[in-house]
Amino acid sequence: MLVLGLESSCDETAAGIVEDAAAPAARIKANIIATQIEAHRPYGGVVPEIAARAHLDIIDELVTEALHQAGIKLTQLDGIAATCGPGLIGGVMVGAMTGKALAAVTKKPFIAVNHLEGHALTARLAHDVLFPYLLLLVSGGHCQLLLVEGISTYRRLGTTLDDAVGECFDKSAKLLGLGYPGGPMIEAAAQKGNPKAFALPHPLMHRAGCDFSFSGLKTAVRLAVTEAAKPLTETFVADMAASLQTTIAAIMCDRTTNAFRLLAREGVHPTALVVGGGVAANSAIRASLTTLCHKQGVPFFAPPLALCTDNGVMIAWTGLERLRLGLTDSLSVRARPRWPLEEMRANQSAS
Ligand code: KG4
Ligand code: ZN
Hints:
The structure is a single chain. The protein is an alpha/beta fold and 351 residues long. It has helices at 37-40, 48-70, 89-106, 115-126, 165-175, 182-190, 215-227, 234-265, 283-296, 312-324, 343-346, and strands spanning 2-7, 12-19, 28-35, 79-85, 110-114, 133-138, 143-150, 153-159, 273-276, 300-301. It folds into 2 domains: 2-122 and 307-350, ATPase, nucleotide binding domain (Nucleotidyltransferase, domain 5), CATH 3.30.420.40; 132-305, ATPase, nucleotide binding domain (Nucleotidyltransferase, domain 5, 2-Layer Sandwich). 53% of the residues are buried.
């Protein structure tokens, strides 16, 4: 089975093609990504109107390129999947409409993919991860701990009470003059910094539960930057980046440990910890989670770096997993700005 996946919910336009090959390494047939980072850079963040237009300008070309890379014709596809939410609605509509048009023309099944489910299932493309697994979903718009019981069956154990973790990285990077997107910039700057230079707050740490909070942390960075001599020195920026990254990694581990404890009390033993979303690209966070999993005695799976940030392959793979179960959607399904993962069980068709 061959499935095309389209992604356009934020600032990457992407088309991927996957096949249900037995060997994980043989599953990706095409992976084309056009990033809009340069278009948004002057604004220090994603501008929805610019994003939607940029998706529209390029998406047809990306589909053609993906088919070319996979060496197949449109008619050879078994299904067409597109992100139908959550995300910036103008962009989501571009991908959803393109996917539906292709499905209508080819008379192939259409699969409306929840972008978060895409991040949640990517680890299963690269590794044979079995249900149920604990998922730490960390991106620019989300920060959640979920028990993935199966396709469409997600139980949220905790979420952020304010900002997403990626947002904390992005806004702090902006304050430090590092530019956009912030996560990779902070990671690079942190390499030369002292992680103990600043004693930053650890919101909710050592408290019960699996929720997150980042607004206090962001404020602490802002205050330190305001008080620092200007222009900021390279040492200040590196030390703050390292301190912030270490603090975030500690928060991730504390909350994830609580999730394992909570599940153990219920007699639920996840097969693994999986990390997904753009922030999963951070190697310091990966290293801390690896150590945690060692202590917990469970394997740790992180998607390959290229599949952590938004891409079409994750949407194609989710489409394939759903298609195998007969979970296809009608062409009247709507694009949605909000679409919590826990709502999927109640609302299989997403319409
Ligand atoms: O999943 P994603 O590509 O888009 C959303 O669905 O939000 O995640 C983007 C987020 C951004 O906030 C970006 O700064 C963050 O992922 N990110 C990182 C790293 N690479 C990307 N954060 C920390 N370290 C990184 N290496
Ligand atoms: Zn994402």
